[in-house]
Every structure is written in structure tokens, then in C-alpha cells.
Amino acid sequence: MHAQRQANWVVTPISSRTIANYAPGTNALKALTTLPGVIYNSADPQGLNLWGQSFLMHGFDQTQIGFTLDGVPLGSQLWNNNNGLNPAVAISSENIERIDVSASAGSEGAASISNLGGTVQFVSRDPSHKAGARIVQTFGSNEMFHTFVRGDSGDLNRTGTRFYVSYARNDTSKWRGGQDQFEQQVNAKLVQPIGHDSNISAFFDWADQAMQNYQDYNLNMFHHGGYGIDNLEGTPNGYEVAYRLALAANGRPGGAVPAAYQRLTSPYTASFFDGAGNQQQYFGNIHADLALTDNLRWNTTAYGHSSYQIGTVTSPLLSSTTGAPFVEQATIPSTQRFGILSSLSYSIAGNEINGGVWYENTKFDADKRAYDEPLLEDVLNGTARPVDGMHLTSPYRTEYNQIFNTNTFVGYVQDTYHLTSQIALHAGFRSVINTTRVGALANWEPYTRTTAIAGGDGVTTTKPFLPHVSGEWTFLPGHQFYFDVANNVKVLPVAGYNGGASPFATTQAAFEASRAGLTSETDWNYAVGYRYTSHIFTGNVYAYHTDFSNRLQQISTGNPNNPYTVIKNVGDVAMNGVDAGFELRPLHGLSLASSISYDHATYSNDVTQTTSSGVQTYAVKGQQVVAYPRLSWKGQLAYSLHEAFFHIDAQYIGTRNLSYTGDEKVPAYWLANAGIRYDLTRLLAHRLQTRIVHKVTLDLNVYNLANEHYISTMGQNGFPLTGDYQSVVLGAPRQFFGTISADF
Question: Does the structure show a pLDDT above 70 at 554?
Fold first, then answer.
């Protein structure tokens, strides 16, 4: 179950050189925005604030795409990731060798139970054979300060034993609102060669994040509230402003609404006192790649992962026992998982046969608590301190607590047969069994508004035969035609109460009523492609059709602090799309690339919902899927001359639906970024007169060149069937980053 086992004609590799075009410390997913049909959104310019980010590819969101690191599953990519972690906290971007992206079905061997719409497979760099070190220091807008240090041991003995250890630290103030965003991370990798063609390796990751999140917007806030509304922690008189806003929301004396919020339809949810996200991640694996014979290889990886997260918001929906008009709500998901992947590969008579298994056990604890906030007068006279996401010290009440235990087993077989030197065919299938049981340990009715949440039972997803066939024909020098057809499944997802598009995220009554008819999301993907490659020109056309069945969506209404959430099967989705692009290299050092994507992804059925006033039908049929544009465009220009390298990239993202009926749409936007790098090594060589420093470079990056005001992420709180909803995130304004790096 490793990235290299996938048929290479459906894979697009993104190298570490492309990742290096972005400011150091930037989430490597951002480098994938150069690919047609790929959209990465974030609230901050580096993409480290994981609550405010999303990733979409050809109409599929991040929960429907498979993510792995060195073959190890990274799981669902929601903030409260129940079975994995985000790539940004799994590995420092400086330690990524490449990213293999399949916008088609993905490999049978990909360790994912959600890869309906492709795979994104990260590959870590190996330690260098030569001893050395790398130091990177970046400064940027909003007092951004990023440091990265890595030391390579080099070969320690004749067998080639080697390792590296790196430390990264990122600290920056928010571009709006108060407080800052902090992350630190340690990576280590050890490689022990065995003979000439085998090795054992180990990888370790520790990540620590402590961040104040950016406040969610709705379209009304975007159009009438300005670009600077945010939560109030860390701003002048922030606790008092939030306190009086909460009093006003509850109709209590002393309440006041800020003047800037007077035009808003929902002024009481426009700002809260606090909204933070913290996490600690421990993640690692041991991998053996063994050549048993000249034609037979055995790959096995054992891995473990422990995750602890805290997400907070100061909610005016409940009062503290102190008498304060709000409470600090903390969502505290934690995960412990372990697994093993093992595969055999055999080459014979033009066949590359590969088969393997993957098993994982996951324990997920979804815990939500309410902490009392102090009275305003006690804060003003200095006898009390406000409770926020960084200081959860007061006694609490458990609002709900659910425990999930999940067992996953996947087996697969595939063969790539080289019929001739010009024709190759691929065929295989995978089998999936996934079982989750849930227990409800606590339920506080004033919060959940129900006598019982989902608990005491489980669901199983079984798909014994998911076929995949593809092929490649190189019919003239530089000309390549390929096709890809696959059937895939996303197992029924796991989430705590109101926490996502999961059958477990509801009341016990709703869970029991739906359990018998629960159906996992499945799809058939059909794709054809053509590439032409020459010394000065590369062109490609990629067309796809997807039949998507039983699309489960989180439909939300009410206050985003505690919405009324319904998990609905919105039926089938029919998707047709095409990407077309080229790269032109007319001169040495000059590259010009452009691509355009069209995606027609529409719901096939209207949606009915039972309300207190009866059954209501929503005209969803024929509407473009939420959050994904019908049209997008990408362009890149790069030029290198002697020691200087310049690059600029631009993208256009078309109109996106916020509601399922399409009556609320997010405006289209243009976004451009640029950078310049200069190699100072030759200039400094005669002055330093030392061989200790091998390379010194200076970088300048500018994000959002035109200072565009736009909506980035969508749907972090779910999507409404109709109308506006506070579930979008603003994109960052123009930002500057300067970097100096040295290799020793």
C-alpha cells in the first residue's frame, strides 16, 4: 500500500521545488493550487489555521479524498479529524520530497476509506548521505516569525545508516482581530539500508498548535459588515464588548451592540469573545521495504497516532452559573489509533502484480464542555480572569460525551500489464469492511435539546468488490492517451453530536430511524486523458464523468454555536468536467503555464424535509453542488537568470453556491501571488572565505498581490438548504514574507 504502486499515467507529481515557491512553513496543500480543478482555501496566508481551511478537487471536498503520508493514512480532513491529522501537522513542508496527486479514482492500495474523488499522497524526504544542516528564517506581515532547522547525520557507517532531526517554529499575529497563532513541530527520520536494495526506516512527528481562530462570516456580514469583524479576545476592552453584546442577545439590562454591527441581520453572532483551536499530535511509523528476490518485494508499515484537540467559542446561548451571560464552550476530540499495512509486489513477464492488506483500529472520544465565565465587574476590578481557549481553568459541565471504536480492514489486488512498450493495462479491485460502535456517556439536555444522543449501537459498511481498470497508449513520440474507470466507497463517517455529516451526529431517535436505511456514499469515476510532451511544450486534456450516489450532507440552521443539524441524503450527483492546460518553455529558464477547468456537478433530486409546519420540498435538482465553482482558471509564469529566479501564479475561482437551492452564492474572485529568489552563494563566497556554508539564498514572497477582498473557505459549519448562513471564512489580504536560508 504505497504511492509508487499506482499506475503512473493517472498521477501528477508535485515536487519540493514547487512547494518551495511558497513562504516557508506554508501548508503544502497550497502548492497543489497550481493543478487544474484543485482549490485550496484558508483563513490565514500560510494555511496553518486548520479550522479555516478546505481542500476540493473536481467537485469533491476534503472528506471525500484520500490523504496519506509515506502510505500511512491521514484520514478525514475535517478539523475534528476522528481518524487522522492534517498534512500541515503530520510533516513540516520543508521535509516533503514530493506530493503524488490523482484526480481520478486513486490507487487500490491507497490507505483510505474516503477516496471517492482521488488521492493526495505525501512522500517524505530521506536523510542525506552527507552530514549537514539547513537553517531557514522567515519574517513577514503581522509580525510573522518562522524558523526551521534541520540536521542530517550523513552516513554513519558502511551500511549507510543515517537520520535527520528537524524543528520548526511559526508565530504570527492574526491579520484581523486580536491574539496570535503559534505552531511548533519536530520531525525525525531514520533509514537503515539492508544489502543493496532493501531498507528499514522510521518516521516521527510531534506537532503543537495554539491558535485563535478567525470568526466565521455569512454573506450579509461580507457585504455590510466590512472586512475586519472578528472575535474580541485580545482587542481593547474585548471582554466588556463581548459581555454587553451577549447581554443584548439575551435581552438583559446593560446590553449594547457595537455601532459597526447595526446593519447586520445577525449582530449577536457576528463576534464572540473567544474562538480558539489547540492541538497536540504524536504520529509515527516503522517501515520495511525488502527485496525478497530479484522480482519479489515485501513492504510493511506499522504506525501509531495520538491526537488531542481543543476548539472553543464563547457562546451566548447559555449563561454561566456565575451570572455571566455566556459560557466558554470547548469541543475536545481525542484519537488513539494504530494500524498495519503490508503488501507484496511481483514482476514477471511484463506484469507488475501487487496485493496487500490494511488494518486499523481507532478510538475516538468526542467530548464537549461548558466553562463558566466571570462577571464583568470582577474582570474590570482585577479579581477574575476571563476563560478562553488558552486558559481552560474553571470547573466545567459536560454537554455531551460520545466514545467511538472503529475497525477497518481493506484488502486489494492489482496488476499492471505491459502488453507492448507502447501499451499498458491496469486492473484490480479492493474490498472494504468498516465497523463503528458508539457509546453515549453524557448528555446535558439544555445544550443538546434532546433526551438522548446517538449511542449504544453501531453500523457496518461492507463492500467486497470495488473494481478499477485503466490503461495507457503511447502511440507517437511524446503522445500519450489514457483512461481510468473505478468504483469507490466512502464509509459512513464518524463525528460527535452536531459535529459533521455523520449518522452518529444526531439524536438517538434520528439515529434509530435512519440506521436501517443508512447507505454509504459511493461513486463510479470515468476519465480519459491525452498528453503531449516535447522539449518546449507540454499539453494535456483530461475529461471525466462521475455518477455519485447517496451524497450525505450536513444541513444546518440556527445559531452556529449550537445549530440544528440534519444529516441528509441529498441523493445522486451527476458530474461532468474537463481540464485543459499547457506549459510552454520557449527559452532557457522561461516557463509559462495555463489551465482552465469546467465542472458541471448537479444534484439529481429535490430534497424534502419535515418541519413543524409540515413537509417542505426544496428545489435542489439541477443546482451546482455547494462550495465548488463551475469554472476556474490557473496560470503560472517563471523565469530564472543566473542566480535569480522569479515566479508569479494567478487563479480565478468562479461563483460558488452557499445554499443547496443556489439562492445564496459566493462571489467569484481573482488571486495572484509572486516571489523572487536570489542565490547569494557566489556573491558571498570570496567574502566568507569558508567552505562551511554551501549555499545561501534570499527569498521574497507576496501573497494576494491585488489585495483582493474575497471569501475563501465555505461550509465549516455546514450548508443551509436555502438562504444565508454563518459558515464562510474570509481570505487574507496582501501579505509579505522575506526569507534567508543557509545550507551547511
Answer: no
DSSP secondary structure string for all residues of 520-549: -EEEEEEEEEEEEE-SSEEEEEEEEEEEEE
pLDDT band, very low/low/confident/very high, at 517 (cuts 50, 70, 90): confident
3-state secondary structure of 376: helix
Q: What is the pLDDT of residues 364-386, one digit of tens each?
A: 999 999 999 999 999 999 999 99
Q: How far is CA 474 from the centre of its chain?
A: 35
- Containing H/E element for 364? strand 351-372
The SS3 assignment for 52 reads: helix
Task: Report pLDDT digits (tens) over 279-310.
Answer: 999 999 999 999 999 999 999 999 999 999 99
Residue type for position 661: T
Full 3-state SS string of 239-277: HHHHHHHHHHHCCCCCCCCCHHHCCCCCHHHCCCCCEEE
pLDDT surpasses 50 at 4: no
Instruction: Using the structure block, give the residue that is written with the C-alpha cell 499547457.
Output: 582
Cell of 119: 488521492
Query: Where do we find the cell 524526504?
Result: 125
CA distances from 340 to 23, 356, 689 (A): 35, 11, 51
| Cβ neighbours of 348 (radius 10 Å) | 9
**How far is 140 from 15, CA to CA, in rounded Å?**
24
Q: Which residue has the cell 514572497?
A: 701
Q: Report CA Rg, the chain.
A: 26
Please name the helix (run of DSSP H) or strand (run of DSSP E) that holds residue 379, with its range, or none: helix 376-380
Handedness of CA 168, 171, 172, 177 (dihedral sign): positive
Percent of the chain as helix, strand, coil, to the nearest 5: 10, 55, 35
At residue 380, the 3 state secondary structure works out as: helix
- Rounded (10°) CA dihedral 215, 217, 370, 317: 140
3-state secondary structure of 432: strand
pLDDT band at 690 (very low <50, low <70, confident <90, very high): low
In single-letter form, the type of residue at position 500 comes to G
Residue with cell 444529516: 567
Closest CA to 58 of 540, 627, 559, 449: 627
Taking the C-alpha atoms of residue 471 and residue 482, their distance in angstroms, rounded to an integer, is 5
Distances (CA, A) of 723 to 512, 558, 570, 663, 720: 30, 12, 17, 6, 7
